[in-house]
Amino acid sequence: MEQLERIASLIGDASRMKMLWSLLDGRAYTATELSIVADASRQSTSMHLSKLVDAGLLKVNSQGRHKYYSFARQEIAYAIEAMSVLMPPPTQVSPVKPQPIKYCRTCYDHMAGSIGVKLLDRLVERHYLILEDDTPAITETGKKFFHDLGIDTMELLSLKRPFARACLDWSERRFHLAGSLGNVLLKKLLEEDWVRRVANSRALVITAKGKQCFLEVLGLAV
Amino acid sequence: MEQLERIASLIGDASRMKMLWSLLDGRAYTATELSIVADASRQSTSMHLSKLVDAGLLKVNSQGRHKYYSFARQEIAYAIEAMSVLMPPPTQVSPVKPQPIKYCRTCYDHMAGSIGVKLLDRLVERHYLILEDDTPAITETGKKFFHDLGIDTMELLSLKRPFARACLDWSERRFHLAGSLGNVLLKKLLEEDWVRRVANSRALVITAKGKQCFLEVLGLAV
DNA sequence: GGGACGATTCAATCTATCATGAACTGTCCG
DNA sequence: CGGACAGTTCATGATAGATTGAATCGTCCC
Asked: Which of A63, A167, B38, B181 is deepest in the core (most CB within 10 A)?
């Protein structure tokens, strides 16, 4: 009960509500970006965000000098959505802002962009990987899956390099698969010609074969 | 957006949250009762309640010198529930307080108690009646339904007495059917021996026949 | 009528909390 | 290294909003 009051009062602030509202799209935003959408100073935004993190509503990921904030759990989004239906005049959903999508590209040595994000989402959805505190761990069925793709996960686990990491994507603002698993997966997909590198660019193109394989193997329409 | 902030800030107050939390059981409470659960003075409670009513979160029904407050719409309860799952330690649902149920009894000349409440609920659920601003209106299928029970609703509609009213029940704190329709319905059920009066009391007992009929005719297990 | 009681209103406080400005930490990059 | 930038911390105001006491209104019931 006391907890509920605390959470309620946290949500019951105009600035914080604006931030939470922005985060509803499921992406991660930096503190400065949130200060802009909330129309508040950087200092007070920092204060608000730390309160939200303390209460377990948001989580934060450091990426260089940036800090990316996102919902700590799905339930937060549900609660905000439930509240939004209380608004008397449902003045239509705010127009979707067209956003330049970085569809498919590499991030250092692994796949990023919306494909990278969808890929990780799907791997988790199918329980090939399990996210533990944003660090992906492989399951038994996952080992089998990667083995069928021709990837020996046992070997990767013995490397010094982290086996798998969830890397925050600067364009999608969501996680994609990094670490040695992400690296090997990219190499495999290039090798199998699911995707090809574009000259002098980090962009990738998906081949016709890749399109079909993503659908067949992972149920991903790309 | 602005509306959402307003609603959020309304919910984000300890006193108001306590009141809303109490109202989650779907019953109506008086201002004084809510001031007790919220541990606030009568004056400030009154202020809080008027704010909640103005915002369309609560509705109020006057009953003599009492004012009964309850959720204006179901969505309010959903939102509160959605928030409640955000509490970090799900310290079990608060123990259900045993409440003395006034199961089945009359209220002046119609049925009240939990049966009366369930009855109205079911009639509305089956679209025999439609609640418009807490005043029940009869539908075409409703006319047929009551006709099959041997009740001529056309005749009732021509009387001076209000055809149907939603009467707030002091024990259930929810609405039951009053007005001439409620009156005739009780008379019919007594006549048909679904229920019987208890001597020197407003209590009613449901007969074996009544039990079966409530189930068959209205799908009500009593 | 008259007292008891539920509920509200109003003006006068009081207080929790948000915003602000200045200073500081840590990262990036030429 | 040194400047630019992201983010935070701290002490100091500023203020919205809650609380309180006194007064008022309406209903109930003897």
From this structure: B181
Contact assignment for B7 to A83 by CB distance below 8 Å: yes
CA–CA dist B156, A28 (Å, integer):
62
Neighbours of B21 (CB within 10 A): 19
* CATH code at B2-84: 1.10.10.10
Lowest mean pLDDT among A181-195, B105-119, B132-146: B105-119
The Cα–Cα gap between A50 and A2 comes to 19
Q: Which residue is closest, via its CA, to the C1' of D27?
A: B65
Q: Any idea where the domains of chain B sit in the sequence? A: 2-84, 105-218
DSSP-assigned beta bridge partners for residue B175: B168
Q: Using CA atoms of B22, B24, B30, B33 in order, give the dihedral in degrees to the nearest 10.
A: -10
- pLDDT confidence of residue A40: 92
Distance CA A143, CA A9 (A): 45
Which pLDDT value is given to residue B200? 47
**Nucleotide with the nearest C1' to B33 CA:** C6
Q: Please indicate whether, in this complex, the C-beta atoms of A88 and B3 are within 8 angstroms of each other.
A: yes
How far is Cα A221 from Cα B97, in angstroms, rounded to an integer?
52
CA/C1' separation A31–D4 (Å): 18
Establish if B40 touches chain A: CB-CB under 8 angstroms: no
DSSP string spanning A106-172? EETTEEEHHHHHHHHHHHHHTTSEEEETTEEEE-HHHHHHHHHTT--HHHHHTSSS-S-EEEEPTTT
Look at A79 and B82 and tell me if their CB atoms are within 8 Å.
Answer: yes
Answer whether A161's CB lies under 8 Å from A180's CB: yes
**Strands in A38-81 per DSSP E:** 58-63, 66-71
